[in-house]
Inverse folding.
């Protein structure tokens, strides 16, 4: 078990190049079993969620080769339609394997997926969509057993634009007989990237990024060498840290369009932001001012995955901010930890009222989920004095070399064994 020791109060200066987006790499890894030919993915982040997904692929019979941040997945000998429970427990994205394993083997067996404990997170929309494509589903002994005589294209109307359900249905429809239309599909940039990836393999998908995705089933997919889009949440996390602590940051590898909602708020907070191609430069001087209301929404709204880190920034901005979390039910567990550092936060159901204080003070705090953990680190970087952040396993799930990158920007942060 490790913890961070952080000496707060340093401004942050420097450059960051982000990895490929975790939330693209995970469905792309699942999609690699759709072909017998090798799939090459580049700039893959060395994070625990990716390692767990690679382990799942190995368990179904894929051969994985790693060289630096490139992963080569050879699924030619994939044999198993079963995803072991001990791995699905670790990772919600294991559920993507349903769509691709069903395409490959016409059956799949998986236990209920785990992941960050931030709300109910059911998979009913995934399962309803798969049923529409001709899959029969039996839930027994904690396992979901899926079977089909052949996937068939269909109209799928999602009750909510779920990212995961949209991706899973795309994976199941890719070789289905006929045409599948997903309405009220999620519009996140990661969905567009999945479409680009699948089309590079020979699929026929269009419409991603709009609310309707059309998939014409094909009979064969080929291998591909692909660099997924940069991680907008990783980029946003370092930007919020710099905005809160003060300083200047250049982020490379992410499109400003993909984090426009965050940039908009940071500008309102008083940051200067310049964008050029895939570079974003952020400058923050003096005390930030609060933005009255920030509500999380599906893309292009303010991302739920930035809510906790942004809350850390609000803690020391001048004035009050009302945060409203519209995606997940219990995404404020970090608030109690921020209060230990002197934050003034009142949480009621999906709303959190944050009254900015002059500064936070160091404390010993514990990460309860991935983005909440990042929020505690941001708060500790800003706080006066020394902090410890415990339970780094959550942070390790989604940030590659978090402490190294922050140290590169001038932060006083070290990782120690406890
Ligand atoms: C993905 C992201 C996650 C992000 C979230 C919302 C990945 C690997 N993870 O998660 O980082 O926070 O999008 O942007 O890409 N829902 C249902 N039934 C379902 C599916 C979802 O009710 O079958 C609900 C969820 O409980 C939640 C909302 O829909 O309230 C959004 O979830 P969804 O978009 O599916 O998120 P994930 O795909 O799990």
């Amino acid at each position: 078990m490790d913890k961070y020791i952080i000496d707060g109060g340093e401004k942050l200066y420097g450059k960051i190049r982000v990895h490929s987006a975790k939330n693209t790499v995970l469905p792309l890894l699942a999609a690699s079993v759709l072909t017998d030919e090798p799939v090459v993915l580049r700039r893959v982040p060395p994070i625990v969620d990716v390692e767990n997904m690679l382990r799942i692929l190995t368990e179904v019979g894929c051969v994985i080769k790693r060289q630096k941040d490139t992963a080569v997945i050879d699924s030619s000998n994939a044999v198993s339609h079963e995803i072991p429970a001990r791995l699905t427990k670790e990772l919600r994205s294991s559920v993507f394997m349903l769509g691709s394993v069903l395409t490959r083997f016409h059956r799949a067996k998986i236990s209920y997926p785990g992941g960050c404990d931030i709300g109910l997170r059911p998979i009913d929309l995934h399962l309803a969509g798969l049923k529409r494509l001709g899959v029969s589903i039996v839930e027994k002994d904690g396992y979901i057993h899926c079977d089909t005589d052949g996937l068939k294209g269909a109209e799928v109307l999602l009750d909510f634009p779920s990212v995961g359900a949209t991706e899973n249905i795309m994976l199941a429809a890719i070789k289905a007989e006929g045409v599948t239309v997903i309405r009220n599909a999620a519009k996140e940039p990661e969905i567009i990237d999945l479409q680009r990836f699948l089309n590079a393999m020979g699929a026929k998908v269009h419409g991603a990024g709009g609310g309707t995705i059309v998939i014409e089933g094909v009979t064969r997919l080929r291998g591909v060498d692909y660099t997924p889009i940069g991680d907008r949440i990783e980029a946003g996390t370092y930007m919020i840290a710099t905005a809160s602590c003060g300083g200047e940051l250049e982020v490379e590898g992410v499109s400003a369009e993909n984090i426009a909602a965050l940039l908009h708020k940071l500008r309102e907070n008083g940051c200067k932001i310049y964008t050029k191609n895939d570079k974003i430069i952020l400058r923050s001087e003096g005390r930030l001012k609060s933005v009255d209301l920030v509500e999380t929404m599906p893309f292009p709204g303010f991302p739920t995955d930035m809510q906790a880190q942004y809350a850390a920034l609000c803690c020391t901005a001048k004035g009050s901010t009302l945060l409203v979390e519209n995606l997940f039910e219990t995404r404020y567990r970090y608030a109690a930890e921020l209060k230990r550092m002197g934050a003034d936060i009142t949480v009621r159901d999906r709303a959190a009222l944050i009254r900015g204080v002059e500064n936070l003070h160091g404390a010993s705090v514990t990460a309860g989920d991935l983005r909440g953990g990042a929020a505690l680190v941001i708060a500790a970087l800003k706080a006066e004095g020394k902090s410890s952040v415990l339970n780094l396993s959550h942070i390790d799930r989604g940030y590659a070399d978090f402490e190294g990158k922050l140290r590169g920007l001038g932060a006083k942060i070290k990782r120690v064994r406890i």
Remarks:
- The first strand starts at residue 2 and ends at 7.
- The CA atoms of residues 157 and 183 lie 5 Å apart.
- The mean pLDDT is 95.
